[in-house]
Specification:
protoporphyrinogen ix oxidase, domain 3; 19 strands; Polyamine Oxidase, Chain A, domain 2; single chain; seven-stranded mixed beta sheet; FAD/NAD(P)-binding domain; about 400 residues; 11 helices; 3 domains; globular; alpha/beta; binds flavin-adenine dinucleotide; five-stranded parallel beta sheet
Length: about 400
């Protein structure tokens, strides 16, 4: 018998592919995890994941479309800078900047920017984009997002979300405005009938295997046993999708890793329903410091006009809903997404305690070793939070299917 911890997209995908006897233990009342939706005020909002990125994964697209049809959206994301809406990624669209900024950025990139890329994120960005673009966009945006200086993070962990354009593309984008969506995920996909409808279809064949409200409290690798509130389960192999930091914390005896050095962000998502749609982009990136949010996005579902505003927060303090409302109102007004407060019809706050992994210099020292240690004890820690990495839902599905395939083979 195998045990899967978590019925998010990773646990469900492992379950879809795993043969033989297994159970999925889920602490919440329903499947979906951060790939699901919740309801508030009669509206449905995504928890975390929104669009699927199938770009280099046609087999994953075929797999999920066997459960539900998906609709493709050609990416139309913008950066809001100095009251201008400039297509994202900025490095491909310098024509959107005033000449006094465009010219030095172009000169620095064409001259080969700042020398060989270094280990930390700041040196990497300087090497590819030069100081002017780093000061204007990358540093304010990423430091707001990560809540720490670029020098405190390592480069190369973004999985292509900071595309490095060819010089001819930078030049073409500096000479004229283009509407193309290059680089990272040019097309987004969303399930017909919204995310929860897909999760419902996807989890249905596993209904008999999923035990909800069954939180795993402890793991004893020597006895190959997990302990829950209601009992215990023996396993041959364990697939865990709970955050790696928490997993290491419930193992008995504790593994030899300083898990407190695994760092992550917490996110506050402000979900809002608006009276009408005034803007046409999907995502709007907000690098400027006076916006508390780093990103705003429209939900793709037809009918209601809903948006989400995301900001990085400290993990613990209670949420201040009045402040969040004030911040949402001023952000939506300043970006022209509403004309006045009367257009904000409904608002709900959702805290995501573990949302993004921080790639600092401890990551390469700790994470691969911890995952290998667990594997040697037949514990496969997978998914975005299980593998403590930056992945999309499509990446998670692929990794889960590959893990299950290896266990089937074994
Ligand atoms: C703000 C935000 C926006 C995002 N946007 C996108 C996007 O647009 N596109 C995209 O592809 N991805 C996006 N992501 C990432 C995406 O949400 C994740 O990659 C994906 O949801 C991870 O799925 P998972 O199953 O690995 O983990 P989770 O969804 O976290 O599932 C883990 C499950 O384990 C359960 N669990 C935890 N601990 C225990 C325990 N002790 N016992 C039993 N069960 C337990 C949890 O309840 C949960 O159901 C976003 C993430 C965030 C935070």
């Amino acid at each position: 018998m195998n045990v899967i911890i978590g019925a998010g997209i990773s646990g469900l995908s492992a379950g879809q592919a795993l043969q033989g006897d297994f159970v999925i233990l889920e602490k919440s009342a329903a499947a979906g995890g951060l790939s699901g939706q919740y309801r508030a005020g009669g509206f449905a909002f995504d928890y975390g994941g929104h669009y699927f990125h199938f770009q280099d994964k046609p087999e994953i697209r075929r797999h999920v479309e066997a459960f539900r049809a998906f609709r493709g959206f050609r990416r139309n994301s913008k950066v809001f800078l100095q009251r201008r809406f400039i297509p994202y990624s900025l490095q491909y669209h310098l024509a959107g900047l005033p000449a006094r900024q465009r010219h030095p950025i172009l000169a620095e990139i064409l001259a080969g920017a700042g020398g060989p890329p270094g280990q930390d994120l700041e040196r990497f960005l300087l090497a590819h984009f030069g100081p002017t673009l780093v000061r204007l966009f990358f540093a304010p945006y990423l430091e707001k997002f990560y809540g720490r200086p670029l020098t405190a993070m390592i480069a190369g962990m973004d999985k292509g979300s900071i595309p490095i354009p060819r010089k001819e593309d930078v030049l073409a984008g500096a000479l004229r405005r283009r509407s193309c969506a290059e680089g990272y995920n040019p097309v987004f996909y969303y399930p017909s009938g919204a995310l929860q409808a897909f999760i419902d279809d996807y989890s249905r064949p596993l209904a008999g295997r999923i035990r909800c409200q069954e939180e795993v409290l402890a793991i004893e690798p020597a006895r190959k046993q997990v302990i829950t509130r209601t009992g215990s389960y023996r396993y041959d192999s364990l697939i865990s999708t709970m955050p790696l930091k928490q997993l290491l914390g419930i193992m008995a005896p504790p593994p030899p890793f300083p898990r407190q050095r695994l760092r992550h962000l917490s996110t506050l998502v402000v979900n809002a329903v608006l009276a009408r749609r005034r803007r046409r982009f999907h995502w709007l990136y907000l690098p400027e410091a006076h916006f508390p949010f780093y990103r705003v996005g429209y939900y793709p579902a037809a009918g209601t006009v809903s948006v989400y505003l995301e900001k990085t927060i400290a993990a613990d303090p209670p949420l201040d809903s009045r402040q969040a409302r004030r911040e949402a109102l001023s952000t939506l007004r300043e970006t022209g997404m509403i004309a006045g407060a009367e257009e904000l019809l409904f608002l709900d706050l959702k805290r995501i305690p573990v949302s993004y992994i921080v790639f600092d210099s401890d990551w390469p020292r700790l994470v691969p070793a911890a995952l290998a240690y667990l594997r040697s004890r037949d514990i496969h820690s997978i998914g975005r939070y299980g593998s403590w990495n930056y992945t999309s839902m499509a990446d998670d599905i692929r990794q889960a299917r590959e893990t299950a395939g290896r266990l089937n083979g074994a």
